[in-house]
Amino acid sequence: MIPFSPPRMDKKIADAVVEALYSGWITTGPRTKRFEQLLTAYGGHRATLCVSSGSAGLELMLRWFGVRPGDEVIVPAYTYCATANVIMHCGATPVMVDSGDDFNISPESVERAITTRTKVIIPVDIAGFPSDYKALNSLVERPVIRELFQPATQEQKMLGRILVLSDAAHSIGATYHGMHTGSLTDITVYSFHAVKNLTTAEGGAVCLNLPEPFDNESVYRQLNISSLHGQTKDALAKSQVGAWRYDVIEPGYKFNMTDLQAAMGIAELERYDTDMLPRRKEIFDRYSQTLSPYSWAQIPHYETPEKRSSYHVFLLRIRGIEEKQRDRIISRIFARDVAVNVHFVPLPMMTYYKNAGYRMADYPVSYDNYSREITLPVYYSLTDEMVDEVIRAVVEAVEEIIDN
Ligand SMILES: *Cc1c(COP(=O)(O)O)cnc(C)c1O
């Protein structure tokens, strides 16, 4: 069986973790701080806070901005549940909108969804392809849109407009006009979950890139406190001689990253551009070149003059089929010992959101993308021979189904 997404684990990662284990400090400490500095340099943004997951990072930033009951947050219907669940945690309302042909949130649909209650937009870089940040960033700056914004907290007053909080769980290393995700909008959140391009088993990072008059360094210091129970000192600071006394200034969260995770992250980031992304690109190119001659194969956008993907997963669509046929094709691919997936079942099809009143019929492009989509595996240890085996299984399965 060709698995779908095994993590890249080798001696370099194991040595880094063992060194951290024996260093005398295993929770948040020097390795986490170093990983934060490396991520800031990599993304080109102003400051980075490492956290326990991408979901924790998204929720922390909604809380920081003061999102609460009565507020609306615009998200794509086509995403992983984390993007919307964190809005529910804050008691606010996810306002779902449709996507475009590139699977990403449609800026025109976002514009139509904005009301006086809108506080945040969360675009998601599906499969690693950056969203249209130029359109989204200029939309929130537009005078008529700014006039609709009703600030209720100090942070909302300072920004004076809707916040663009990017869910970059798939897209670390992707670029738009030559700039990395992290520096493309106000705040960006990466995930380092086991299936993501860069993994720390579980983990995430908040990239701060807030405009004037925000001081990103002081927001970073404040978030350190909010992500560790509102304590004025972390465990490392408290462990210093005579520094035992601390205060609690808010009922904060427990969202910190450990130095074991950071040790993995540092080792992964060191080789991310030099061998992880290039190998992923080769796999994308091989799928694309071999499959594009088939008239039924719709190849995803992954490189355009402005954008370059992080090559997270390959979202193949089959032309002219319905959801049931797609499901049958997937069974036949599995029968050939190849694991594939679907990214994503749109949120309005999930029981909770369906019961909450979201209707799939309101998101026709998302439904069309989903119903014809099969996600092909992309990972470092997937060899050319394995890619060819995946392609063979897909071609045979599709041709069995569409010819009948
Ligand atoms: C994985 C993922 C997340 C959540 O990341 P975690 O680190 O697992 O919390 C959020 N959004 C999307 C689109 C994801 O794929």
Keywords:
binds pyridoxal-5'-phosphate, 41% helix, single chain, Aspartate Aminotransferase, domain 2, Aspartate Aminotransferase, domain 1, 404 residues, alpha/beta
SSE map:
Blueprint: H1 11-21, H2 30-43, E1 47-51, H3 54-64, E2 72-76, H4 82-89, E3 93-97, H5 107-113, E4 118-121, H6 133-141, H7 143-148, H8 154-159, E5 163-167, E6 175-176, E7 179-180, E8 187-191, E9 204-208, H9 216-226, H10 235-238, H11 259-270, H12 272-291, E10 297-298, E11 307-308, E12 314-318, H13 323-335, H14 351-355, H15 364-371, E13 373-376, H16 384-402
Helix pairs in contact: 1-11, 2-11, 3-4, 12-16, 13-16
Bound molecules: pyridoxal-5'-phosphate.
Bin the helical content.
40-55%
Residue share in β-strands: 5-15%
How would you name the CATH homologous superfamily of the largest domain?
Type I PLP-dependent aspartate aminotransferase-like (Major domain)
Number of domains: 2
Helices, by number, come to 16
* Low-confidence blocks of residues: none
Sum up the overall morphology in one term: globular
CATH class of the largest domain: Alpha Beta
The helix-and-strand class reads alpha/beta
The largest sheet, given as strand count, sense and whether it forms a barrel, is: 7 strands, mixed
The CATH architecture of the largest domain can be given as: 3-Layer(aba) Sandwich
Quaternary structure annotation: single chain
- C-alpha Rg (nearest Å): 22 Å
The succession of helices and strands, N to C, reads HHEHEHEHEHHHEEEEEHHHHEEEHHHEH
What's the end-to-end separation, in Å?
Answer: 26 Å
Strand order of the largest sheet: 1-9-8-5-4-2-3
